[in-house]
Amino acid sequence: MTATLIVCTTCKGTGAFDPEGPRPGAQLLAALAAGGVPPGVTLRGVECLSACSTGCAVALSAPGKWSYVYGRLDPALHADAILDGAARYAASPDGVVPWRDRPEVFRKQSLARVPPVEPADA
Questions:
Q1: Would you give per-residue pLDDT tens digits along the chain (122 residues)?
Q2: What residues does 112 pair with on adjacent strands?
Q3: What is the pTM of this model?
Q4: Lower Cβ count inside 10 Å, N or C end of the chain?
């Protein structure tokens, strides 16, 4: 089953950035793409995750699994850890990666956890 790693491309980050250049969220998407997306993970950029006060944000989701939103991410520091966490999420049966097995950035910077959506005919 494929997991989707969603990256907010309009995030401004938490520090100063060049308003003429790409936003930090777009930089994070580029860093993730350059880092080699793991098997079982699809990378997708979106214009807003509504986590504007938390810096750069990403979400992980897959059918039948818990979904997560993570914030306070830095394109220069966290791309490798995000990719590692996405691979672990994709390999999990329900989206719940044991706490100790999560990258530190996923343990400390989770903004939301959303339960799986039940099928319409349930």
A1: 689 999 999 988 777 777 788 889 999 999 999 999 999 999 999 999 999 888 899 999 999 999 999 999 999 899 999 999 999 999 999 999 999 999 999 999 999 999 998 755 55
A2: 69
A3: 0.91
A4: C
Whole-number Å distance between alpha carbons of 122 and 118: 7
> How is the chain split into domains, by residue range?
46-112
| Residue 111 token pair | 């903004």
Q: Could you tell me which residues come within 8 angstroms of residue 97 by beta carbon, excluding any fewer than 6 positions away?
A: 85, 88, 89, 106
Q: Which residues contact 111 (CB under 8 A, 6 or more apart)?
A: 51, 54, 57, 69, 70, 71
